[in-house]
Amino acid sequence: MTAIPSTPPKQLEHALEVSPGDWPERELYLMLTALVVPRPIGWISTVSASGVRNLAPYSYFNLMGGDPFLVAFASTGVKDSLRNIREVPQFVCNIVTGHVLEKMNFTSADYPHDQDEFEWAGLAPVASVKVRPPRVREAKAHLECELVQVVSERNSHVVIGRVVHVHVDPSVWRDGRVDPKLLDPVCRLSGSLYANLGEIMSVQRPAWKDVQGSVGQEKMPRIVKR
Ligand SMILES: Cc1cc2nc3c(=O)[nH]c(=O)nc-3n(C[C@H](O)[C@H](O)[C@H](O)COP(=O)(O)O)c2cc1C
Fold first, then answer.
1. 222 C-alpha to center of ligand 1: Å?
2. Which residue in 58, 110, 164, 183 is deepest, having the highest Cβ count within 10 Å?
3. Does any ligand 1 atom lie closer than 6 A to the CB of residue 85?
4. pTM higher than 0.85, yes or no?
5. Among 6, 88, 78, 16, CA closest to 47
6. 58 in ligand 1 pocket by Cβ < 6 Å?
7. pLDDT 10s per residue in the chain (226 long)?
8. What number does the ligand 1 atom closest to the CA of 117 have?
9. Which CATH number is 74's domain given?
10. Is residue 15 part of a domain?
11. Is 187 a member of any domain?
């Protein structure tokens, strides 16, 4: 077996084999967050027991279940969002779209606990329907959530919430559903890199009733460009 490099090599002559602990943590972080892409961004608003608002982006974030609808985001270390959720167990996932990318990024600075990122980024807090934390008026959609549980493993804290209410702006709605192009979600790559949606394709889901009796990939649904 080839020797494991102690840091990322400039060029790869063979397939890379690396395990946690082989490299400095930051290097593994940069590689894994470059491999698991694109990641959506949950722009999480919370409120402390004393009423201080907080807003911060998390790209360890996704919709994690459908019965009930769960979302999860993960905090590396105990940050203000998690501190607030421990005090007031609710949060809002504001969906990050192209027009708010810079403001979203500005809310990621390490503002002290008593600072309100809504004010720093010039964003308007508006009341939520079912939870105490406000949502971001400028966002095109919001998922209001109640905390289900926090799963912690060393310094990673996965916050799981149940979606209790959803808001969608009319500007992203077409023909009875959210139009991905109109939504224009920001896709996070690694480090300071972001992307928007490229070409959109459709591939139908296969069903056994259609596949049975065929040979190999004969009935494999094909890509249709939209
Ligand atoms: C696009 C983006 C995504 C981020 N994702 C995460 C994440 O998933 N987990 C995390 O702990 N920090 C993440 N960060 C860093 C936090 O946003 C940053 O530490 C912030 O200060 C946390 O705010 P808080 O202390 O108010 O919760 C991200 C930053 C950016 C710009």
1. 38
2. 58
3. no
4. yes
5. 88
6. yes
7. 566 778 899 999 999 999 999 999 999 999 999 999 999 999 999 999 999 999 999 999 999 999 999 999 999 999 999 999 999 999 999 999 999 999 999 999 999 998 999 999 999 999 999 999 999 999 999 999 999 999 999 999 999 999 999 999 999 999 999 999 999 999 999 999 999 999 999 999 999 999 999 999 999 999 999 8
8. 26
9. 2.30.110.10
10. no
11. yes
